[in-house]
Amino acid sequence: MSRRSSAGARTIPTFARRIPSHRAFNERAAINAPIQGSAADIIRRAMVKIEPALSEAEASRPRMLLQVHDELIFEVEDAEVERTIPIIVSVMENAAMPALDMRVPLKVDARAAMNWDEAH
Fold it and tell me: What is the pLDDT of residues 62-89, one digit of tens each?
């Protein structure tokens, strides 16, 4: 027997396990699935909204290169970094709107560096 998480996106094996560590793992997975799914939806919304926002601001065409979990990596001309970061941060922090009015605001941390490793 298995159960669906509340988000309906992931099947969780039955909770009626005799081995406590298996049961605990399944409980954590059931709690985590809707959270991860929601985070994935929000980052996708941000990715869709960023290009129009940058175009509207007439930014010199920064390029979104990569998504890594909840991070987006861009290539931006040095002269445009200071102007581009606030646009990206704003779009990402408000990506869930208007579909979802979040009680806890999203906060985005953005850094400019020559490579991904230096940005961390």
Answer: 899 999 988 999 999 999 999 999 999 9
Distance, CA of 1 to CA of 105 (rounded, Å): 38
Q: Which helix (H) or strand (E) holds 37?
A: helix 20-56
Q: Which pair of tokens denotes residue 55? A: 């175009």
pLDDT score of 42: 92
Q: Which two tokens stand for residue 77?
A: 């001309």
Beta bridge partners of 4: 11
3-class secondary structure for 57-119?
A: CCCCCCEEEEEECCEEEEECCHHHHHHHHHHHHHHHHCCCCCCCCCCCCCCCCCCCCCCHHHH
Residue that is written with structure tokens 């709107």 in the block: 97
Q: How far is CA 68 from the centre of its chain?
A: 9
Domains of the chain: 15-119 (3.30.70.370)
C-alpha–C-alpha distance, residues 12 and 107, integer Å: 31
